[in-house]
Amino acid sequence: MPSVFITGMGIVSALGIGTASQKEKLAAGVSGLGAASFLNSIHKTEFPFGEVPYSTEELFNQLSAKNQLQKSRLQALGALALEECMAGLKEKPAGIRQGLINATTVGGMTDIEDRYFKLIEPAHLEQDMSWASGLDCATGTEHLARQFQLTDFLTTISTACSSSANAIQLGARLLSQGMLDRVVCGGVDSLTRFTVNGFNSLKNLDRSVCRPFDAHRNGLNLGEGAAYLMLESEKSLEKTGNRPLAKLSGYANFNEAFHPTAPSPEGLGAYEAMKRTLDKAGLQPSDISYINAHGTATLNNDESESLAIRRLFGEAVPPFASTKAYTGHTLAASGAIEAVFSILSLRFQEVYPALNFETPIEATGLVPFQQYQSMALKHILSNSFGFGGNNASLLFSSYD
Amino acid sequence: MIKPVSIRAASAISAQDSFRRNELSEPIRTPSGNRFTYLEPNYSDYFTIMQLRRMSRITRLGLVTAIECLRDAGDFQPQAIITGTGKGSLQDTEKFMHAIREFAEGTLNPSPFIQSTYNSLNGLIGLHHQVNSYNSTYVHSGFSLEHALLDAVLQLNDNSIQTALVGSFEEMTPEHYIIKDKLDFWKKESSEPNAVMNRSLGAVSGEGTAFFFLDRQQDAACLQLVDLRLLFEPEEGHVISVLESLLSEHQLSWNQLDVYISGRNQDIRYEHYYEEVEQHLPASTHQLQFKHVSGEFDTAAGFGLWAAVKMAEKKQLFPALLRKKGNAESIRYMLLYNQYYGQHHSLYLLQLPLI
Fold this sequence. Notes:
The structure holds two protein chains of two kinds. Chain A has helices spanning 19-28, 56-61, 73-87, 109-112, 116-119, 137-147, 163-176, 193-201, 234-240, 268-281, 299-313, 324-327, 334-348; strands at residues 4-13, 16-17, 98-103, 153-157, 182-189, 225-232, 246-255, 290-292, 320-321, 350-351, 373-374, 379-386, 390-398. Chain A is built from 13 helices and 13 strands. In chain A, helix 3 (73-87) runs parallel beside helix 6 (137-147) and helix 10 packs across helix 11 (299-313). Chain B contains eleven helices and eleven strands. An eleven-stranded mixed β-sheet of chain B has the order 3-2-4-5-1-6-11-10-7-8-9, with helices on both faces. In chain B, helix 2 crosses helix 5 (120-129). The longest helix of chain B has 17 residues, at 57-73. Chains A and B meet through helix 5, helix 6, strand 4, helix 7 and helix 8 of A and helix 3, helix 4, helix 5, strand 3 and helix 6 of B.
C-alpha cells in the first residue's frame, strides 16, 4: 500500500488529558478505573468506569478555542483531543485539502438524555433549541470540523467498538487515492446512561475492575474518551514539512457473520482481520513486535481473540496486552485511543504492563505482558472488534 | 475524481409502491398530514413469525430491501456491505430510552439496545446470507448514503473488491418528528391538497430504504455511477463551479445532460441552490424531482438514485417525477443533485453506457 504517515496525535481518556499524562500512567501501571462522578446513572458506583476525571465545564475551561462548539461533553472531549493533535503541526499550507473522519456509537446522547422527555413535549420550547440536534451523530463531527477547519471532507462512522479503527482505514484509503492530502481520523464517546444500561442488560459489565485475558474474567468496564491521528500522504509531507511519528503500514476490516453481538468461538473474524492486515503490509507474523489486543475482558471476546492469536502466531506469540484495564472500553474511541498507545510504544520503545491478570485461559494458555519494559519495537498490531461481527485491525510501524 | 462503476441492481421501499414490482407504480400516494410513511411489504414472504418478532421496523425494511437487491443482482456474496443512515433505528433508540426511565434502570430487555446500534442492520444482512466481507456504516446525516457509496467506489477502484452492496435506511417516528419540528425542519401542517408542493419554510417529512449492487465492471449494467462530488456548507456560487469542473473533467458540457433529477422540496430557504443549477440547463434537459413523492429525510437521495437506475433500465422516464419536460430524444447522461437543509450537497454524475 502507498505510505500513510501519522504526524500528529491527541487524546483524552480516564488517564487524563494529553499523551504525556497517558504515557506516565501507563508506564507506572496506574489505572483510570473507578466509580463515576459525572455520569447520571444509578449504576455509577455499582460498576467501575473509565470516566474522564473532569466535569464538562472543567473540560471546556481547558480548551483554548471553542467558539464553534455546542455545550456538549462529547464535543469537549473531541475538541481537547483535536487541539493536541493539531498543536504540534505546522500551519496548513495553501492548497492542502484536509478533512475529519470521526467515529461515535451514540453521538450526543450524554448531552440529550437528561432532557429528552422535555424535548419531546410539543409545547416545550426554549429560546435556543439548537442543542436538540445533538442526537444526530453528524452534529458533533460538524461542530468539531468547523472549529478546526477540517471541512473539505467530513464524515462519521458507527460500527460499534471498531468505529474509530474503521475511521483510520477510510482515511488511509482517501489519502492513497488522492482524494485528500491529509485527514484527521479518530473517535469520541462519552459515558451515557443509555449505553451503561445497554451493556448491563447484556450482562457483560464486571462489578470489579476488568481482567483482560484472565481465566476468571467477568466482563468489561465502560469508559469514555477521544483520540485523533493526523494522517498525511507523502505528497502532503513535502508541502507541510511535518515529521512523521509513525507509519500506518496495514489495515483490514472483516465481518465474520456469526452473531449480532457475540464473536465466533474460534475467532474467525479476529483471525482474518489480523491476517489480512499483515498481508496488506507484506509482513509475516514473525515481524510483529507487539499486539495491542482488543481484550475487553468479556468471556467471549478474550477467548476467541486468544484462539485467533494462537492460530496466527502459533507458538511464537509476540508480547501482547489489553489497555482496557486502564481506560475501560471506550467503544467508538477505543481504536484511536489504542492507536495512540501503540504509537507511544513505538516512539519510546517501551511496553506497558497488563493489569489484573492472574490465571491464563485454559484453551490457549496465553499470558499477557505484565511489566513495564524497554523493548525494540518495529511493528505493532492493534485490534478492535465489535457488535455485528465487525472486526478491524491496524498495523503501526516505527518511522526512522 | 473516481473511476466509473456499474449499478447492477437497485431496490427501494418507500412511501410509494416502489418495491412490489420494482418500479414507481401509480397511483402516487399522498402524505398523511405532513408525513410520508412507508408502504410496507408483506414480511411473511421473507421471515417466520418468530424471526419477525425479534426484528424492529427499520430492521425488517432494510433487510428485505437488501435481500431483493441481491436477488436482482443474482449474487448473494457481495465483497463488501456498506450502509448509510442518518438515524438508524429510531424506534429502538426511543424504546430503550423509555425503558430506562420506566424501569428506573432496572432489568431491561437488551433487544432495543442491540438494534439501536447503527451497524446492526449491516451485521444482520451479513448474517442472513453468510457474507464474510468488508463491512461499515456511515452515520453522517445528509451524506450518509454518499459516504457509503464513496467507500465502496474507492475499494472497487483500487481493485480490492469486485462487487459491493451499498444501501441506506431511514425511518421517522412521532417523537423524532417533534424534535425536528423544533429545529424548523418541517412545513406548517396544511389540509389543502398538494400542500407538499407549496413553497414555504420547511419540508414534508419522509422515510425510505434503498439498496444498490455495485460492480467494478463498467459495462455490467444499464447505469454507471461516473462521479460523485460532495460539498459541505458551500459558499455562494460554489455548487456551480464544482459542477462545471465536474463536467469539464469528463469532457462534458451542460448540453449533454439529458436528465436532471433534483432533490427539490419547496423549502424556500434552500430552493435557490436548485434554481441556480437549473438556470444553466438547456431546453433539451428533462427536469425531474422526487421529494414530492418520497418526502425529505437524510438519505432521500437513495430514492432518487433508485429511480434513476429504474428509468435507465426501462429507457423511460417516470411521468410522476417529471417537473419540466425537455426535448432530448435519447438518454445518455443524468445528473442527480440533492442537498439536505443547505448543508450537505451531493452531485451524482450518471451515465447509460453505449451498448
